[in-house]
Amino acid sequence: MNAIQNQLEALHSQGNKVLGCFPLYPPLELIHSMGIVPVILWGFKPFFSQVPLADRHVQNYACSVGRYLMEFVLQDKGKSLDGLLMYNACDTLRNLPEIIQKGLGEETVLPLHSFHIPALSMDRSGAKEYLHDRLDELIAWLETTFSAKFSLESFQHSVNLYGQLRQLMLKCQALAGEGKALFSEYAALCETLNFMPLEAQIPALEKFCAQKEANKPAPCNARVLMSGILPPLREVLEILESAGLRIVANDIASMHRAWAYTPAFADDPAAYYADLYENHFPCTTLLPTADRRLAALESLLENSQARAWIFAGEKFCEHEYFELPYVEKALKARGISTLNLEFSLGDEQNLGAMKTRIEAFAEIMND
Question: Do the beta carbons of residue 281 and residue 311 sit within 8 Å?
Fold first, then answer.
């Protein structure tokens, strides 16, 4: 049993119902408001050097994110989760619900719901109404599967708590940007939080902020912005930091993109999530936001005074790599240095070569 399963088993031992969510931007407030613990199923890389069960069902040219998820679910067989909620984000992830059900077979009963987010602007005719219907379906499924009940009062309470969480996430990143905390520490904390109840996440972030606020800012000239679907392994982040590079801001999907935007409160879930998905910090997996990606990156670079952009790419992640040449060209035209690091299954074997590239990049940055 790995550390993630230990955390999930601890949630069960406390009497919680646990819903695994994949990928990153499910309606967390809604799930939480119904007395269910939503956990974001990311961060499996340190625990799986190979994915033999997933390889029976998913092609080896699919991204490691989907393959790790498949391996975890097939190994776990419903022991750590009471259900799965998945939504459309890319071709690989869109097909996984059926593949997972086939892989588990009839002997394992793991309730699974597919939640579809409109892949167009909420201003388009019918988009909000479509989302409203999908949320109604989700609420009905949660009520039936978990013997739960939706209430507007509980939803309002959960919205307020997640608002606090988002502010604390941004504060942690600001402390890393000031040199009072290491980004590698913040990234490791975020991966742990994914498998904790919200009521434990907030105190953990408050403790992190309290510990780091008193630190003296570390001097640094090589200020960089880190981007990608996932943060690199902690070993890679520590190589970056040891080379004298300070990650002063991030555009990582599982971190800044997930927490940067807080919707205005609405008196019903449909209006709240129409706002969230329409005005979400731009992400390649949310197609209606894609046109705002470059402007958002440029704003992060300017506000953080970063002089370089480091892209941590998951091999075969189609959405990220489609926009990569365009972003690199635009940023280089603005005098921003760029470094492209690619990761895949077993990439820990390439740390030596990656260290050489990072150190060479840092020398140029520090000249």
Answer: no
> Both ends of the chain: CA-CA distance in Å?
47
Query: What pLDDT digit, counting tens, does each position of 6-27 carry?
Result: 888 889 889 999 999 988 899 9
Q: ∠167-195-157 over CA atoms, to 5°?
A: 45
Query: At 361, which amino acid appears?
Result: F
d(C-alpha 87, C-alpha 116), whole Å: 5
Q: Are the beta carbons of 2 and 9 closer than 8 angstroms?
A: no
> Using CA atoms, how far apart are residues 359 and 363, in angstroms rounded to an integer?
6
Q: What pLDDT is stored for residue 61 in this prediction?
A: 85
CA atoms within 13 A of residue 253's CA, in its CB half-sphere: 27
Which residue type occupies 275? D
Task: Name residue 223's amino acid.
Answer: R
Cβ count near 13 (within 10 Å): 8
Q: CB under 8 Å to 149, separation ≥6 — which residues?
A: 34, 143
Higher pLDDT, 317 or 135: 135
Cis upstream peptide for 23 (omega within 30°): yes
Structure tokens at 155: 């939803």
- HEC sequence for 193-205: HCCCCHHHHHHHH
DSSP letters, 202-261, are HHHHHHHHHHHHTSPPPP-SEEEEEEESSPPPHHHHHHHHHTTEEEEEEEETTTHHHHS-
